[in-house]
Amino acid sequence: MANIIEIFSSIQGEGLYVGTRQIFVRFAGCNLACDYCDTPDSRKLCDHALVECAPGKRIFDKIANPLSIDYLAQRINSLLTIRHHSISLTGGEPLGQTESIIKLAPKLKGLIYLETNGTMVEKLAQALPYIHIISMDLKLPSIAGKAYWQEHYEFLRLAAGKEVFIKLVITGQTGSDEFKQAVDLVASVNNRIPLILQPVTPCNASTAVQPDAMLTYQAEALKLLENVRVIPQTHKFMGQL
Ligand code: SF4
Q1: Residues lining ligand 1, judged by CB closer than 6 Å?
Q2: Ligand 1 centre from 171 Cα, in Å?
Q3: For 169-204, how does the pLDDT look when each residue is reduced to its tens digit (9 = 90+)?
Q4: What's 140's domain CATH number?
């Protein structure tokens, strides 16, 4: 059984695969509490899941949680009537429901793309055989409230066995020391892992970063890493889910 917030077809708005069509499966619950979290409701379990009836039509069935794995697979696969790049397991933090992912993934008819906060190392080890692409957040202490350097390092070493890229949200509160430590961490695993710098969409306590500061951050990261891109949350200004 799985506790799901919603399932729908849309455009990936962040990261290396921005613009691709994906099915989004949002798992409920998260182990963190980031300052800029734009989905605070996703941090707790939900009574009901919203499940889109046809891809992109925005007509939803309201189904009581938890959902059986067979039912979940059937509803996800039913949205694949148009071509999608992949099925994004997102949240909340999807690895909080790793047992469900392990049972679900083999039943899905598409590439599995994992969007994760990059802290649940043991859970990633269990789910890894079923995942094709990993979008890993690297949470800086200024937004996560504490440091996750060791967890992130171990997580990235494991994830590097698959296709992986890093998303690093930059806010007005980002410190140059923590930024440098993040870049060093990625470079210590593999300097060819793509790093996406995502200027924050201001939310809650987080404030915007200045445009010239983004140029400085990118130049700094490019001293150690081969592929550093600046990409904001594009789904917000497209008005997509
Ligand atoms: S990891 Fe994601 S879902 Fe969890 S608190 Fe942070 S932004 Fe929100």
Answers
A1: 30, 32-34, 37, 39, 42-43, 91-93, 117
A2: 15
A3: 999 999 999 999 999 999 999 999 999 999 998 877
A4: 3.20.20.70
Atom 3 of ligand 1: nearest residue by CA position: 92
pLDDT, tens only, 107-160: 999 999 999 999 999 999 999 999 999 999 999 999 898 999 999 999 999 999
DSSP code per residue over 33-100: --TT-S-GGGGS--SEEEEESSTTS--EEEEESSBPHHHHHHHHHHTTTS--SEEEEESS-GGGGHHH
Distance 228 CA to ligand 1 centre (A): 23
Name the domain count of the chain: 1
Give the residue numbers spanning the domain of 207: 4-238
